[in-house]
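#structure-requests
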Amino acid sequence: MGSGILGVLREELGGDLEFASNLFLAGFMRRRGIVPGSVEFRELAEYYNSGGRRRGVFREMERDARDGVDLAAPVVPGVPVREAQKSSLRVWDADRFERALRIKDYSQATVRSYVSRLEHFSRWLGGRGRSLQSVTDDEIFRYVDELVSQKKVTSIYLRVLKAALHAYFSEVLGEPRLLPMLMGIRKRHALPQVLTKGEVARLLRVTTNLKHRSMLAVMYGSGLRVSEVIKLRVEDINFENLTLRVRMAKGKKDRYSVFSESIIPALQELSEGRRGNEMLFWSNQRAGKAVSARTLQHVFAQAKKKAGIQKDVSCHSMRHSFATHLLEGGTDLRVIQKLLGHKHIQTTTIYTGVARRTLQNVKSPL
């Protein structure tokens, strides 16, 4: 190719060669099979290693070539290829991505969700000899098209994938992307599945362990998310006002909710002898720590099975049931919004649809 390789690179960059980062150069050379010792490699290395334009990717590729590493594998500056071949996570620099998200104060659940989405995408790319650092819009489109055409994902999955990719390109690569193929994805507003009051009573009745039953009772009776239930501390419970404080809920804001007078004895027994800052629902395996989300989910699944409930419901259905039953009982929608911690009233209005659905089975007394 001779000097033509610089022209090809300039055309792909759409302008000045100075804009090429190590990541971009690594992908550019890998896509064209340019390896140490080739004319194209020497020409690129000579250009970028002179005049203060030094790029570390050339030195790293030369070292890996000397070590006999397969240079057809994804090349990532800062991550030797022999290491990258061991794990798709290392290929797209998951550790750095996680650190960037935590610095931005993303929740643990969001970090796990974003990493999971990108790990799956990275494996898909790896099977095609590509990597996340140099992925094109067309490849993202083909990946999304495959997921959608095979009905493997929901609109929520795609919305999270879009957010994860946006964060990765912005925070790790420093190159924000518009991602047009993921624009306009609408969240489906299917009516949530709720339990009847009788079914909730059965769930509680078949759960004999005091701590487990209390967790279920608070989840329903206060409308809490799983993460909010397990974070409760002894000092968060106000027995006089029948309220509890929900710490650092979704959106990083504290809020208050209510709880039933009927569970006061159970909560008092759980609080007895414990300091205010101690966890209300503690772990038996990890001293001083709260029970895990998985434990609460398992408790719910076991209770559902014992109660003979066939509905497709989860822990979050208890929160849906709380809101729906309050609305059916005449509680103002704005009050329910505050109790649930919804930022927008539109989020809460979905329960009006659930309430209308239950009213279809009500007959007029006339």
